[in-house]
Amino acid sequence: MTDTWTPLLVAAFAGAVRGGTPILYAALGETLAQRAGVLNLGLEGVMLVGALASVVVSYYTGQLFLALIAALLAGAVFGSLHALFALRLRANQVVSGLALLVLGNGITAYLGIPYVGKKITSLPPVKLAGLSEIPFLGPVLFQQDFLVYASYPLVLLIAWLLYRTRFGLEIRAAGEDPETADASGAHVLFVRSVAVIVGGACAGIGGAYLSLVYAQGWIENMTAGRGLISVGLVIFARWDPVRAMWGAYLFGLAWALKLLLQTTGLQVSPYLLGMAPYLLLLVVLIPVGVRYRQGNGGAPTALGKA
Amino acid sequence: MNYSRRFLLKRGLVGFALALALGGCSKPEPTSAAKPADGKLKVGFVTVGPASDWGYNYAHNQGRLYLEARMANEATTSIVENIPESAELERVLEKMIADGTKLIFPTSYGYLDPALRVAARHPDVIFAHCGGFKSASNLMTYFSYIHEPMYLSGMAAGRMTKTNKLGFVAAHPIPQVLRNINAFTLGARSVNPKATVNVVWTNNWYDPPTEAEAAKGLIKLGADVLTMHQDSPLTVVQTAESAGVFSVGYHADLHQFAPKGWLTGAMWDWGELYVRIAQSVKDGTWKTEQYRAGMDGGAVKIAPFGPAVPAEVQKEIRAMEEKIVKREFVPFQGPVKDRDGKERLARGQQPDFEWMEKMDWFVEGVVGTITKK
């Protein structure tokens, strides 16, 4: 390790955590929903709604706490739209999800026009006392911001919820075998709706991360595909929240490296690096596909079925 | 008129339904409704992004507002925002012409070819295209060498840096951007030979999350002054401010977004040029041209200094500004060598338009690579 590479690695891994965080929030929510058997392809739209809601509230009130609540609620409202159409009214989940995507994109582009270029209160970086002094790990993990710190326990919380609680069992049962879950006394429609609405709320926060931390304002279509990446990430992580975290950071790392490697003078095409996360996704999907050739890749059995 | 075709086409249905739902309270209001009968010249502007971006499009809109204020009795203006660089523009221009617009500013580089096609169909309408290199009998082009104030901003950056590392977040490796990077670097190193400029390409004119990540990465690697060439300088300026490092702006004066760290910046000031063009159209003296000028033309200048810049540094930069305005000095003056030592401009030579439009190399002091597509 020469002197130039250590700071580069620290910057890259710190960027990986930061860049992975919005995707992580959305992917955690989608993991819940898909575990309950509901596919929500509209995360992109949900994230945009969360991003705009937090900008609007931050702009008018200057209160970050309220801005985050707004993102949470906006995401939950979009999640409940999906629950209404795909679950209550039994519309095709793919179609309902795509409708959310287009709706979220259009509605935010329209309503967001007056907020372009407006100065908002943004989420400041906060060093965690003590922890941030740990060599290497400190600057990577503990010189970030509130939403990054909140995402660490959230990963564990969702894992605990899924694997260690009765409600988690009902979620998984609703996703694997809704008839049996129903027969054993779980209210499948309720369980699935909760999973989708909470999932939407998480995606809303993911969107708020982009507007409050990165852009520090509203920009039309600022998610730029991150919602779609999150859906892919859930499959990549094989429906596990902890793996989703590693996956999100991997995406973040490729994104950060694409920018940082340029400062080293290395002749690596940024276009090639930009492709890296997607290539990686494909490469990981090959062994997954081979291993589960007979089944459905380890997906919840009832995923996407009404 | 404040409509946008793309917005109508793509979001019309959603927007319409919503406008109805909200009782029409957020319906866009037409901003001008002058009829040609009142003898006023109708001037139209088209921008590739939102005029509220505090950047490239904002600067053009400021020029439009200046024109409208100065020629209130002689001209009315309209603007159409968010029009992609495609055949979409032709439809927008046709609509403007049908509404009686006689002078049109298509302000984005990629608007040139569709604008030339529309110009050929409407010889009675005059076009002024920003940045183009082809003209027609009713289409002029104009541009200003913003790398000159960028050189001066580089001087401020070079004086203020403590780490001697300057960060440059840039969109695409095209001559116009490379000129700014090189001029900024030359300016910085003219006062601080130890300064280096670290370039990170975002490969996008407008991608705030990537711009922010690039800025954060540069800061983490030790850059303590950041600048950019992106459509909106807002993200990098705000990211620098919240990280507590200095920023040098581009396109517009953004000091209010960085009350502590703002140094200065290179900015457009199109107003006077727009008035001159509109006046000549109004008077019937307009002739097609390829207008190019530096700081002597007045359409580019350096932004006001922030409180962090000491008086003696301001004085030094103002002195150099005067030399540039008087054309006693220009940033690229022979001999100019590239990073590898190859001579690009011989001693005593002055750069011409063509030379500048072909720039595809870095000067010494730039860290980074020029990626070829």
Give keywords.
heterodimer, A: 306 residues, mainly alpha, ABC transporter involved in vitamin B12 uptake, BtuC, 0% strand, B: 373 residues, alpha/beta, Rossmann fold, 7-stranded mixed sheet, 11 helices
SSE-based structural type of chain B: alpha/beta
Fourth-level CATH superfamily of the largest domain in chain B: Response regulator
CATH top level assignment of chain A: Mainly Alpha
CATH class of the largest domain in chain B: Alpha Beta
Outline the structure in words.
- The complex is a heterodimer of chains A (306) and B (373).
- Chain A is mainly alpha-helical and 306 residues long.
- Chain A has one domain (2-293): ABC transporter involved in vitamin B12 uptake, BtuC.
- Helix content of chain A is 71%, strand content 0%.
- Chain A contains twelve helices and no strands.
- Chain A has helices at 5-35, 43-61, 64-88, 93-111, 137-141, 146-164, 166-176, 178-183, 188-215, 226-236, 241-260, 270-291.
- In chain A, helix 3 (64-88) runs antiparallel to helix 9 (188-215).
- The longest helix of chain A is centred in the first third of the chain and has 31 residues, at 5-35.
- Chain A is globular, with a radius of gyration of 19 Å.
- The N and C termini of chain A lie far apart (55 Å).
- The model of chain A has no long low-confidence stretch (mean pLDDT 91).
- Chain B is an alpha/beta fold and 373 residues long.
- Chain B folds into two domains: 16-145 and 270-297, 3-Layer(aba) Sandwich (Rossmann fold), CATH 3.40.50; 147-267 and 300-367, Response regulator (Rossmann fold, 3-Layer(aba) Sandwich).
- Chain B has helices spanning 5-21, 56-70, 88-98, 112-121, 147-160, 175-191, 208-220, 234-243, 271-283, 311-325, 353-357, and strands at residues 41-46, 75-80, 103-106, 126-130, 139-144, 165-170, 196-201, 225-229, 246-251, 262-268, 290-293, 300-302, 336-337, 343-345, 366-367.
- In chain B, strands 12-10-9-8-6-7-15 form a seven-stranded mixed sheet, with helices on both faces.
- In chain B, helix 5 (147-160) packs parallel to helix 6 (175-191).
- At the A-B interface, helix 1, helix 4, helix 9, helix 11 and helix 12 of A face helix 1, strand 7, helix 7 and helix 8 of B.
